[in-house]
């Protein structure tokens, strides 16, 4: 189930909401856990990619990438 990150527009608190995509499309009942405000904006979340037990950047290329990576 996806995890969505939000920031309260009133107090600046960052909080998470876990919901299915269907629930997200239908509309989430967002309430800031700090101040109770219902005015929040969604934050973009970076994804981590694990390959062979090593953490890589989103593109799969890093400083220790093997031959053939990224051209």
What descriptors fit this protein?
single chain, 71 residues, mainly beta, Rubrerythrin, domain 2, two-stranded antiparallel ribbon, 1 helix
| Spans where pLDDT lies below 50 across 5 or more residues | none
The total count of strands amounts to 5
State the end-to-end CA separation.
Answer: 34 Å
By CATH, the topology is: Rubrerythrin, domain 2
| Biggest pleated sheet | 3 strands, antiparallel
Order of helices and strands: EEHEEE
In DSSP terms (H or I, runs of 4 or more residues), the helix count works out at 1
Structure overview:
- The chain has one helix at residues 21-26, and strands at 3-8, 14-18, 40-43, 49-51, 54-56.
- The protein is mainly beta.
- The protein has a single domain, classed as Rubrerythrin, domain 2.
- The strands form two sheets. Strands 2-1-3 form a three-stranded antiparallel beta sheet, with no helix packed on it.
- A hairpin with a 5-residue loop joins strand 1 (3-8) and strand 2.
- The model has no long low-confidence stretch (mean pLDDT 79).
Summarize the SSE layout with pairings.
Blueprint (H helix, E strand, L loop, with lengths): L2 E6 L5 E5 L2 H6 L13 E4 L5 E3 L2 E3 L15
Summarize the entry for a quick read.
This protein has 71 residues and is mainly beta. The protein has 1 helix and 5 strands.
């Amino acid at each position: 189930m996806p995890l969505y990150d939000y920031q309260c527009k009133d107090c600046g608190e960052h909080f998470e909401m876990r919901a299915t995509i269907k629930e997200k499309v239908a509309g989430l009942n967002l309430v800031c856990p700090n101040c109770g405000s219902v005015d929040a904006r969604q934050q973009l979340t970076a994804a981590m990619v694990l390959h062979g037990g090593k953490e890589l950047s989103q593109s799969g290329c890093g400083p220790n990438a093997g031959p053939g990576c990224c051209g």
